[in-house]
Amino acid sequence: MKILKRIICVVLTAAMLGGTAVLFTSCAADGFSQTAQDYFSALCRRDYESMYNMLTPQSSARLSLESFKEYHDKVYNLLGVNKISVEQGETVASSNRIVYNYVLVLDTDQYGQFRYDSTLEVLKKLDKFYLIEWSPSNVISPMNWDDRIYKTTLRAKRGEIFDCNGKVLIKNQYAITVYADLTKVQSISEAAAGAAQALALDAQSLESKMQSAADSKQDTAVLATIIPGELTIEAEEALKLIDGIKIDRDSMTPIRYAVYGSAAAHTIGYSTPVTAEDRTKEEYADLLNGTRIGRTGVEKEYDSVLQGTNGTEIYLLSADARTRTSLYKKEAINGLDISLTIDIDIQLAAEEAMKEYYADRASGTTVVNDPKTGAIKAMVSYPSFDLNIYATDSPREDASDLVNDESLPLFNRLTQGRYAPGSVFKTMTAIMGLETGTVNLNTAFPYEDEIISMGNGTDGWKPKGSAWVTYIIRQHFANSASLGKLSMKRAIAYSDNIYFGWLGMQLGAETFLEWADKLGFKEAAPFDLPLQPASIANDDDNLRNDAKLLADTAFGQGELLVTPVQLAAAYSIFGNEGSIMAPYVINYTADTDSEGRHHIISQTQPYTWIANAASARTINDLLEILEFTVDSATGKAGYVRGMRIAGKTGTAQTGNEVTEIGWYAGYIIDGGKNYSVMVQTDGFIGETSDIKHATVKAVFNYLKD
What is the pTM of this model? Predict the structure, then answer.
């Protein structure tokens, strides 16, 4: 045997595909090189029949032409090969055999270029025909006779969601799956009855599941999927006594698990698997079955961040499945984890307070934020719902109950509900009056005998029991011996509608609109989740042409509407000497390593939404009044011993004689605990005051401790 060294040259064949080139060595005119050339040329143009006709009888006896084609097509089609070329190297020759060493080059659009070192054996027979000794390694060199090629998608893990202290809120894990191993079940009916009793389920339904699986020649039947923590010890022990009934915790049923159930449900949101309808949209067209899509909340708005990118592996697997050879592998890129500004402990405290005091009496919201930064620490929309209803690929049966529930538990009142703010808006009107110099802290409302008229002769704004027919306002606290002269200070502390209606008309519509815009009440505040815009009026001209409406709006009624999140943001003006911070709930996004450590990709930087909306002097003056309001006046129900709190209550009419909107806006002003608490209640007239006060006091007490 001798090694022949030759000069590499390029030979272009008439049968080349797409410019495919076969590179091989010039060889002695003994026929060997021509056989190799013909084989390689046929390979490059995928002429499998010509290639098959060149095989030795021993090779062709092992597989048919169809099998020969299948070997090549399965590999090349799965790899997406669009061009085949051959680079030949050294040749080893003997008297009856030549071994061609070559590089098989496979070009693909999706996976790049594959290069495999391989050999081709050309044999000489007595009749001088030259034939190919073939094996699957000539398709791609790692391939053996019993190997099969497979392509699998490496699923990206959806990012998890954490609170600001690193506590996991939403995690990917497995449910507790109760299943029947039908190879071990002695009696389907008896096993079904026992499992049904242990799990408080319908025995007939479980029996049907088991019988259906048995009829389909399946070895297992899933009986129940249970959220972690919901399987009692007693039930588990009972299940263990039933032949063939098994429990799996870590391999059968993947779920999107909400660790705290309903906590921050509207903010976090939920996800469900992709549907056929989803795939009609370009962004979801290529998603695999089972891939979850965010439907509400952070899960929806940050779906692309949480989603990740699937990977791919193409591999050979031996018939006994013991040998696996990877041909191509692109690892999945997991979705990023998201850290919220939510503090789950504050969130749970606020939710417990609302559950206790609201019950079936009211709906509403609570927002706890850091006015210095705009970071929201708790967001509660009540009533709420259990996120784990959507934990599995098939929502629980009670999912439909949520849609049909008249209390609207799925409705996010925090960001989508718009309500008249009532008297909590009076502080904003006070800012307008003080900043424009229209009034000062001591400016008194005219005495009872003095009538302030805006004229034009139409029916106007009337105190209860009055018959006034023009736009007139009169003081109703002026003759109270306990209050004395009604100044700005007292008007805020005792929440006098008349004073602020009068102030609104003193400002005039144009100035009022200008300042409403300056304070952010003519748009939606910037926020991480979709937020309904605040609205000062249905149309600005309504205020210009209707003094009654202007007066009503000045004390928080009229057509004025605002979301709880935005109103909470507006109150950050009292924590920032006159500037309003943009609210936010996304703390950061992060890549997470194998040891669970977060590596921050992007982090929210607090920023000022409206700079210098009011002077520091005005804000400090109002803070003193609001602290007095909590200590001694209308806000004292929110008083907590040992805390300095500035606060304002409010009640707004809803347009009917049954319900009203209650508010409490409070700001903790003692060092280190600069939280704002906004509570909103939608309940029966006469009840909202007690509900909101009890709720806000419970939250304040928690924050104190």
Answer: 0.86
